[in-house]
Amino acid sequence: MIESNAGEPVDATPTNPLDQSLSLDRVVRALPGMARLAALSGLHLAEWGLKTSLATSREVTRALAAGQLPTDMVQRAVRDLRDVGRQAFGLSALDRPIDVRAHHVVDELRTVDLQARGAELLYQSADVWYAEDVHPAFARILDEMAPDEARILRFLCEAGPQPSIDIRTWRPLGIGSELVEAGLSMIGLRAGVRDLSRSSAYLNNLFRLGLIWFSREPVEPTRYQVVEVQPDVAVAIKRAGRMARIVRRSINLTPFGEDFCRTCLPHPEGGFTNGAGPL
User: Fold this and answer.
1) Is the CB of residue 185 less than 8 Å from the CB of residue 227?
2) Which of 144, 181, 209, 246 is the S-S candidate for 236 at Cβ 3.0 to 4.6 Å?
3) pLDDT in tens, 162-218
4) Rounded distance, CA 88 to CA 164, Å?
């Protein structure tokens, strides 16, 4: 080490010209291989981009035809592209960070889309020339119904409200009384369903869809006599004990259910009566 005129130490170790020429020679020899690697990587990247664009376009077209929301498609496409990119760098899906801003943007897009749909409904409701033939939920309800449930609806349309009973344990003044069985009826048997064991499930689904109502109002007292001697009622009474309590109720169509039957389940002979008059 020697000192410069400014007093700072300077490395006076002489460089070897042979070492410099060897390093430069290695770099020159490596240039063709690096060029081929770069060209191959660029070709693979272009091929991947083309395939991804075509696949994404087909997926978006199918999703739009199926009625999916554009915001959902954008969110899914961005997530898939991000996953592919992370896999290219050797990262797994578990290493993916939570993009809070992206989720916030997607939520805002979904909110804007919902508000736009709501505004469109309000606009149509104010349009005196707009006429809607059927309720838009009818198509979805048909997809969520079993064939036996259609028979039950047709029966209720023709016969009107049906007797139903609940079996409860007896307690003084009803304090501490427990429900043993609810909604026992002969609707499944009288409607002619193929699977009687699923009658309660059928009725629960129709109630979920808003087509029938489990009413607290009873029908004519004489109509309960046949129901109360059915085998499933006898079993429930035995489970409730010697002093079982029978609560009389009824099952009937809701106004929405009547409209659904009138529109989707027309009788071949010209309409339903609902037990009280033409619908």
Assistant:
1) yes
2) 181
3) 999 999 998 887 777 899 999 999 999 999 999 999 999 999 999 999 999 999 999
4) 64
Cβ-count burial of 198 within 10 angstroms (0-12 exposed, 13-18 middle, 19+ buried)?
Answer: middle
3-state secondary structure of 68: coil
Residue with token string 């999916």: 68
Q: Which residues pair with 167 in a beta bridge?
A: 181, 246
pLDDT in tens, 71-97: 565 566 666 666 655 555 555 544 555
Cβ atoms of residues 272 and 158 within 8 Å: yes
Residue 9 dihedral angles phi and psi, to the nearest 5°: -70, 140
How many angstroms separate the CA atoms of 152 and 233, rounded?
20
Instruction: Say which amino acid occupies 31.
Output: L
Exposure string for 106-123, b = 16+ CB within 10 A, e = fewer: beebeeeeeeeeeeeeee
Block residue for tokens 């469109």: 120
CA geometry: angle 140, 145, 146, nearest 5 deg = 155
d(CA 8, CA 81): 56
Spatial separation of the C-alpha atoms in residues 181 and 168, rounded to whole Å: 7
Give the tokens for residue 86: 């992370």
